[in-house]
Amino acid sequence: MTYGVLTIEGLSKEFGATKKVPALKSVNLEVNRGEIVGFVGLNGAGKTTTIRIVAGVIRPTSGSVRVEGLDAFNDHEKAAELFSWVPENPIFDLGSNARSWLLYVSRFGSKEISASQVDEALAKVGLGDKGRVKLKAYSLGMKRRLALAQAFLEEPQLLLMDEAMNGLDPEGMHFFRETVRDFRNKGGAVLLSSHVLTEISGVSDRVSFIHRGMTFETKTLDELKQEFQSSYGAAVTFEVQGLTDADLLEIGRLSGEKASYDGKALELKSADETVVSGVNRYLVGAGRTVTGIRRADFNLERLFLDKVHEADGRMGA
Amino acid sequence: MNKALLVFTRELVRQLKNWKVLVVVALMLALLISITASFSASVQQPSFNQVQPMAIGINDSGFLGVRAYVVDGVGNPVSGHLTIEKDKIQQASPYQSTPVASFDLYTGSDGFGYVKTNLSFSELNPTSNGTIPDYEIMIVQRAGASTSSRSLGGGFYLPENVSVETASVVSPSNSSIPGVVLWGMNQDGSPLSAQVYVGGVYMGDLSNGTFKGFYDVDNAEVAVSYGAGENVTVAMVYRPQNNYQLPTGDVLVMSVSQGFLSFFVPIAAIIAGYDALVREKVTGAIELVISRPISKGKVYWGKAGGALAAMGVYFLAVSVIFYLFAQYIGISLALGDLALMFAGTLFLLFIFIFLESITGFFGRSASAPIVWGVLLWVFFNIIFSILTSLPLLLTGGAVNSAYGLAFENLISLCNPIRVATLIMGLSFFNSSSSFTSNAYGLSPTMVIASAVIWVVAVTALFIIVIKKKE
Questions:
Q1: Cβ–Cβ of A150/B290 closer than 8 Å?
Q2: For residue A123, which of A108, A294, B261, B396 sits 20 to 30 Å off, Cα-Cα?
Q3: Check: complex ipTM more than 0.85
Q4: What is the C-alpha to C-alpha distance for residues B389 and B386, in angstroms, rounded to an integer?
């Protein structure tokens, strides 16, 4: 049997000793070499729990997690040589400094990491001059950078990033995005969890959706764009002001659908070129100033929310 | 390097810099030293019966009776009043709210008549409801006409065979040294010009209102010499050499182990266990280590072991300092006793560090394991003792027999603190009657066996918790 860099099958997790609370019901996922997989879900959907299980921090109730074919939990010491984890809120030994911390954790791996390599890693994430500062003086952004330095120090094959870009300033976001892309381009595999879907759609090759502890769909970004196109590609927005009810009535007659209007933008969910042309002619003829006409751009968030609603329907919410 | 050893080493260094533990250990060391010193001093002090108040009163002040000079531990006069009793009739001096040097307790015109028989000083109250723990009473018997010179010590003279007993024990000032303390003044309050000779050797002058000690004068005659015809008062307390006995090693070890180690060691262990493992576990700081190529078991064992080693280093230093101090003040402790003290301490550290570490697997908040730690300490230090005394209390003392005591001691082996104190005194099992009676019904084998059972049980619990809860 062949495995991806990361293969998750039928993963479930229940918390609580007496009163069991299911956090994961069925998670199935695969991340391959040279690929960034966006892991998308609402808060509490199970993204962090899944990643923490892969990282070996918590034990699954059932299912399997394999990293390059190795059981991530029962063979953790070997599997952990292959991945690195960047948690949402990295918590370090605050009495330590970045340099000594990295030297310490790097010694658990089989690779020999020198002090100069640690300094390089710190410099790479912009902490070159902060290596000897106590970690209790670090901001969240600095801690995330340090976690990234730790993650890359041992040249992993798989990077687990859990909401790692949340709360970063634009420079930090840019840095993370470029770092992750660079890692992917060199053959690395990335599982990137976030609920900032613009970030996911900006860097991911595939996206896996999770809701209520279950992954229910995984598609490439191209497939998602096509799906969006087929669902929302016919939608058109006219940037126009001052429409009356009579205008909207006429536009509804011309387009065959009830148009939505918020005072600035008129939106038609499905309009071919003939309808667009007809509506535009009407608006111009009625003396309205049309400042722009545009087709809908790819919006993962919109697509995701539709999918969640569908999933809720299937799950009986 | 072995990964568990890596965690162990880092934790060892980290805990050696743990200021909270440092504070507890430093506090413990300070108390250990000071209490041992005062313990030694109090043992060295003569007991009530051993103090021999001696007085000479030479005056023509117009009354007969007793004058008591009461001073605190450093020789300063104290406030209060003094009660004397003769034939169950009490007489109290007026209460003095400001420190006074002396209390006149009797005059010939009062009900006691001439002082010819025993007087006892039953009470000294510095306030209406308190007492001064350390004070010194110098009694002056006023007896009549002056003489030109008087010899104290072996030839001491008390008129009409009056003996005087002090009511309490002496002050710690100079109390560790045998000798005499003298005080003297002229009746009119002017400085006393008197020379003190001990064994015929001039030792110095007495000056008015100053208490002066002369030491190492056992078996020597003390003489106070002053001008003929002077009316002076000289008071003296004599402390004989042969009353100074240092405590023996078993007494010291039992006192220290039961009074201090059992109190402080678990506190330090709980703090170390919490800081090493529990805090990182409940805050999640341990997760970035666990996600590395190392098993959780190695991380947990390394951390708890590192904390234990660090505490071991601390308490080894404490034990060595204590040992050297005991030697310095002349209490004989064998190196074997030191080793047993350290072994008992290490045992206690192990039990409490690991028990506290185990609580980290159950706590749902950062504070819960702290509460667990406190409860453990309270249970084994206080509640357990009460529980083991219950059979005695419930049966109205009916089990207060040899069997009852043996049963109670046997049950007490379920308390690691008690086991630790017994380990510390293992070498005294058959050589010290006080230790043997304290551990009645037990044997060294039973103590060692219970210690082994404790270590195995806690280790097993730690392993099970790691496996089940992770």
A1: no
A2: A108
A3: no
A4: 5
